[in-house]
Amino acid sequence: MNPKERRLLDELERALAEGGLRLAYQPKVATADGSLVRVEALVRWAHPALGAVPPARFVPLAEDHGLIDDLTQWALRTALRQWREWHAQGLDTDVAVNISAVSLEQLDFPDLVERLCRALDVPTERLVLELTEGATQPLIKLMDTLTRFRIKGVGLAIDDFGTGYSGLIQLRKLPFTEIKIDRQFVTGLATSRDDQVIVRSVIDLAHGLGLLVTAEGVETVEQLAALRALGCDLVQGYLLAHPLEAHELVAWASRHKRRWKLLIRPPEDPYLRQRLEANG
Ligand code: C2E
Ligand code: CA
Ligand code: CA
């Protein structure tokens, strides 16, 4: 490891220990009626000198140098505690947490998650784990762990679908409850026939397997319309909301109810449309 990386890792370790990390939460809404179904927790690190360090920069570092389990547990605890608080405020939503494939190699991980849910008084059914395939670890190898989570009632989403190993055929064997179509396919939806065909097949097959489908990275009203027409269940992206601070969610939810009507019947005027899209 070069000295710069070493230093960043040390600083990350300190931030984790001293409360320097926080979670932002991005809503996922139902295409049917715009209702808030769940929020995805995304880690944020405001570095004192470097400013916001993106997770794509420090999560892999934590994975490679033994810090990921601490990070994962911190994220789970923080998100579950936050769920309790929202619940007390009458906000009814599930919560999704990103889990690195490295953490799944820990055999007692499902028990640990169950204990955390119990300690923080969150039903396991309200938690979804979002898993991305590691570069070297196809998810099929983690079958036992995944099954144990399902037995406990925890939901499992396969993240970035279409970019890893798991084809739809493999998916049949894995105990997932949800798939998230990667942003790259969503971006092309309005313009590329190929992307339309891919997204349509993924949605139809996933539904055939009884899975919920979320499209991520939805940024335009055209993409939203296409996804609704294709029967995609949930949408997430800057069009609906950027990742929010925990305390912003309640206000967002009431504003969103009114805005949804416009999103599904957007104004013809390109200027008004642009303004609508920019206000997510
Ligand atoms: P991801 O799980 O695929 O998360 C989606 C990423 O896309 C997030 O970036 C989110 O801010 C961004 N995003 C959401 N909507 C849009 C959109 O409409 N357009 C565009 N261009 N981007 C959008 P972020 O927060 O930088 O996270 C990057 C990745 O870091 C995540 O990808 C996830 O793999 C990982 N990550 C984030 N938080 C955690 C965590 O707590 N634990 C672990 N293990 N990984 C995390
Ligand atoms: Ca995710
Ligand atoms: Ca993703």
Poorly predicted spans? none
| Helical content class | 40-55%
In this structure, how is the largest beta sheet organized?
A: 8 strands, mixed, barrel
> H/E element string?
HEEEHHEHHEHEHEHHEHEHH
Q: In words, what does this structure look like?
A:
The longest helix is centred in the N-terminal third of the chain and has 21 residues, at 68-88. The chain has helices spanning 3-17, 55-64, 68-88, 101-104, 109-119, 143-152, 168-171, 183-187, 193-208, 221-229, 249-264, 270-278, and strands at residues 21-30, 36-47, 51-53, 94-99, 127-131, 155-161, 178-181, 212-215, 234-235. It has a single domain, classed as TIM Barrel, CATH 3.20.20. By secondary structure, the protein is α/β, with parallel strands linked by helices. The radius of gyration is 19 Å and the shape is globular. An eight-stranded mixed beta barrel has the order 1-2-4-5-6-7-8-9, surrounded by four helices. The relative contact order is 0.12. Helix 5 (109-119) runs parallel beside helix 6. The N and C termini lie far apart (40 Å). It contains twelve helices and nine strands. Residues 26, 42-43, 54-56, 59, 75, 98-100, 130, 132, 159-160, 216-219, 237-238, 243 line the site of ligand C2E.
